[in-house]
Design goal:
Length: 267
């Protein structure tokens, strides 16, 4: 697979027959050389993939797309402030949500904060963003289950495009994702990193299935909290209303959705 459509969309697309981790590979290259933003590495055989919060990410050879994109965000007035980087992996989750929705128009698709893509409540894609402070950039990796069979699923809460009824061509999917990611990131940078003004926040809210739900969040420090997810803040963090009425803002964590919170009855 040579990915001709995707190749048109980025300054460089490295197609690897196999890679231990496209994130690690791209980060190593970006540390060693001044690569342009949107340099991309892709494989369908990732052998030592990294997941969020120190976990592994694995898929049988040929069953999933592993794609990593280097983003070096610059606004008209200079490099994007580091506290505005939080919207970049959310943009990736939203871009993949839009891409999957085009493949599966009849399914219920949404992203679970911070950036898992779910189809009919099951995870089809995960995103891992790794900062490259020395380059002022971030490597955004996405793993999308394509042709994975039920027997090959890593966990029973996962799914794949083929299980859900799409035999999507990898180049079409990758090109859709890269197009959407570029649009969302460029729009965000054109406003100087203002997610509200660029429309990124509104679009993220519209496809985020975490908002309005009772959630339990496992935090990176080993702690946890429970409450209702109410909003995305100015930096893309999740605002959670606790049982005692206080708001807690979470930058990273593993979210479990509980039941949908019914709206307040009219007075
Ligand atoms: C998650 O835990 O949900 C995030 C998984 C991210 C996996 C992708 S596959 C491409 C890139 N390379 C990696 O090693 N990990 C990410």
């Amino acid at each position: 697979m040579d990915y001709p459509a995707s190749r048109e969309l980025v300054p460089e697309l490295s197609v690897r027959p196999s890679s231990p981790s496209t994130n690690v590979e791209l980060a190593e290259r970006a540390r060693a050389a001044d690569l342009p933003s949107f340099t991309t590495v892709v494989t369908t055989d990732q052998t030592a993939g990294k997941g969020r919060l120190g976990r592994t990410w694995s898929a049988p050879a040929g069953s999933a797309l592993a794609v990593s994109v280097l983003v070096v965000p610059r606004t008209a007035s200079g490099p994007l402030a580091l506290d505005r980087f939080g919207w970049l992996p959310i943009a990736a989750g939203v871009a993949m949500t839009d891409t999957v929705a085009r493949e599966l128009p009849d399914a219920s698709i949404g992203f679970k904060w911070p950036n898992d893509v779910l189809v009919n409540g099951r995870k089809v894609c995960g995103v891992l963003a790794e900062l490259l402070p020395e380059r002022g950039g971030v490597v955004i990796g996405a793993g999308l289950n394509l042709g994975m069979t039920v027997e090959q699923l890593p966990v029973e809460t996962a799914t794949s495009l083929s299980i859900e009824g799409s035999d999507a061509d990898p180049d079409t999917v990758l090109a859709g994702y890269l197009t959407r990611l570029r649009e969302l990131v460029q729009g965000y940078l054109d406003t100087g990193g203002d997610a509200e003004a660029s429309g990124l926040a509104a679009h993220a809210r519209s496809c985020c299935i975490t908002l309005g739900r009772a959630v339990r969040i496992e935090l990176p420090d080993g702690g946890s909290l429970e409450g209702t997810a109410t909003a995305l803040d100015v930096d893309g963090r999740l605002v959670v209303r606790l049982a005692d009425g206080r708001d807690e803002t979470v930058a990273a964590g593993d979210v479990t959705h509980a039941r949908m919170i019914p709206p307040e009855p009219a007075a």
